[in-house]
Each structure stands twice: as structure tokens, then as C-alpha cells.
């Protein structure tokens, strides 16, 4: 039975509301489309007046299977403490305090950007070809996943599962040393820093409740593999079909103090 990529984008009066995607088998196609439409219509940012659904058949021999990043949740009391903890991980990834502070300033300044920023951590320049569009991480999902978009279980709701699938794919790309992200959903305050080295570090607050800002930054180091170009990195993130194995490892929740010792 074939696999299909489903992509949903919704807007209201030409303002982006939400976007999501799945990779599912033919049997789950109708149900998955219905769930994505339901999500678009019932989003916290408003009821969409335009919903676009794209369905594309995928050749199974073109799919790469990868492992999910292990998950650690850091319970922080507010967004200020969350940002401080995010900077701790950035520092551990070899990014100095001055640069990590600028990364936080950069992500806080993102407004209505549909894709991600790619930041060269050596030159500290934005290197995505289109600064308005950014880089769109697409064609990824958990193997055989069926998301419950209304789930209250933060381990398995759509925000988390989609973010983990995306972070796992992006982190598997050569020359991407990490990613920092938080959602533009005003009701969802959590965010994360993901990397090959430390896995998916989730912070319960990276922004205040009600804040409609959101964005992501891919941290790029061309020195890791000089034979893998920026264009190849972008092509992998945007076009390679990836299914993440349904084998998520949840580590014990930790405190900000314990984060220092990971």
C-alpha cells in the first residue's frame, strides 16, 4: 500500500494561521486530511477562511528512516528562566555567551516568517537564500503515526510530535549542530533546543502565554563536513522524505540546576 504526503496551510484574511503535514498510508488518508482540516478551523489564532491541502504520492524506496532524538523536559517557572536554560544548551554546543544572547534576540524578533532562519555560527550571518521565506523543513513524520490534535498529554500532542519529527530530521543533516524553536501558537508556551549531542531539550516556557510570535533557527557549521554544501543541506531539509522510527526515549524530567550537568 502506497504512502502519501499531506500538507496543510491555512490563513485568515491572507494572514498565516497554521501549517502541518503527515506522511500516511492510503488507508489513513481520509482520516488524516480530516484531522488537519479540523486543526485549521479550530486554531487558537483564529478560524481560517482559506485552507489549502496538498496530497502527494511518495515512492517508498525514496524514504529514509531515522531515529528520534531522545527527549528531556526541563520544568521552568517562566519564560525568563526558560530562555536562560536555552542559553545554557547553546553554550554547551560551543556557542559563546555573546553569540547565544544574539541568537535569542534574533528568534524573538521573528515576525510571520513561514520558514526557518539558517545561521552560520562562525560568521554569524543569516545564510538562507530568501530571508522572507526562510527554509521550510518538510516531508517528515513519525512512522505510522496518527496524531490526536486535541490531546492534553504533552508527550503525544500534535505540537510535540510534529516538532520532534522536524527536529530529528533537521539534526540528522550534516553541518546542522542544533536548532532553537518555539511555536507561534499563543496558547503553547513550550520551546526547545535540539541537537545530535544533547537530543531534544524541551523547556516548558520559552515565551509568555498569549504571545503570537514564534520561529526557529537552524545553527549551521560548514566546517563539520566541507564536502556537504549549504545547498545540499537545504535540499535535505526541504526535500528528502524522512520517517522517524516510532521509538521515542523519554528521559527523566530535570530542573534548571540539573541541566548544568547533562
TrEMBL record:
InterPro entries: BioW (IPR005499)
Cofactor(s) demanded: Mg(2+)
Record keywords, A-Z: ATP-binding, Biotin biosynthesis, Ligase, Magnesium, Nucleotide-binding
Pathway it works in: Metabolic intermediate metabolism; pimeloyl-CoA biosynthesis; pimeloyl-CoA from pimelate: step 1/1
Protein EC: 6.2.1.14
GO biological process entries: biotin biosynthetic process
Record field: transmembrane: none
Catalytic reactions on record: heptanedioate + ATP + CoA = 6-carboxyhexanoyl-CoA + AMP + diphosphate
Gene Ontology molecular function, alphabetical: 6-carboxyhexanoate-CoA ligase activity; ATP binding; magnesium ion binding
Oligomer status and interactors: Homodimer.
Function, in words: Catalyzes the transformation of pimelate into pimeloyl-CoA with concomitant hydrolysis of ATP to AMP.
Family: Belongs to the BioW family.
Protein name: 6-carboxyhexanoate--CoA ligase
Amino acid at each position: 500500500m502506497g504512502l502519501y504526503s499531506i500538507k496543510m496551510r491555512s490563513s485568515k484574511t491572507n494572514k498565516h494561521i497554521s501549517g502541518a503535514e503527515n506522511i500516511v498510508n492510503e488507508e489513513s488518508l481520509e482520516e488524516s486530511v480530516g484531522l488537519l482540516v479540523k486543526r485549521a478551523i479550530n486554531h487558537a489564532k483564529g478560524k481560517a477562511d482559506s485552507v489549502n491541502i496538498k496530497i502527494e504520492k511518495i515512492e517508498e524506496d525514496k524514504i529514509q528512516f531515522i531515529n528520534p532524538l531522545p527527549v528531556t523536559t526541563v520544568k521552568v517557572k517562566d519564560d525568563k528562566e526558560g530562555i536562560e536554560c536555552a542559553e545554557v544548551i547553546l553554550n554547551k554546543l560551543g556557542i559563546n555567551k555573546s553569540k547565544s544572547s544574539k541568537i535569542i534576540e534574533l528568534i524573538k524578533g521573528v515576525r510571520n516568517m513561514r520558514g526557518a532562519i539558517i545561521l552560520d555560527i562562525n560568521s554569524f550571518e543569516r545564510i538562507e537564500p530568501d530571508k522572507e521565506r526562510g527554509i521550510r523543513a518538510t516531508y517528515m513524520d513519525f512512522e505510522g503515526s496518527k496524531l490526536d490534535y486535541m490531546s492534553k498529554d504533552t508527550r503525544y500532542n500534535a505540537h510535540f510530535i510534529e516538532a520532534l519529527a522536524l527536529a530529528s530530521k533537521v539534526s540528522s543533516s550534516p553541518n546542522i549542530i542544533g536548532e532553537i524553536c518555539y511555536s507561534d501558537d499563543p496558547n503553547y508556551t513550550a520551546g526547545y533546543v535540539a541537537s545530535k549531542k544533547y537530543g531534544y531539550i524541551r523547556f516548558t516556557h520559552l515565551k509568555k502565554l498569549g504571545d503570537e510570535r514564534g520561529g526557529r533557527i537552524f545553527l549551521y557549521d560548514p566546517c563539520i563536513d566541507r564536502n556537504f554544501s549549504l545547498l545540499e543541506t537545504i535540499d535535505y531539509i526541504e526535500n528528502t522524505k524522512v520517517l522517524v522510527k516510532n521509538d521515542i526515549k523519554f528521559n527523566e524530567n530535570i530542573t534548571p540546576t540539573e541541566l548544568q550537568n547533562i
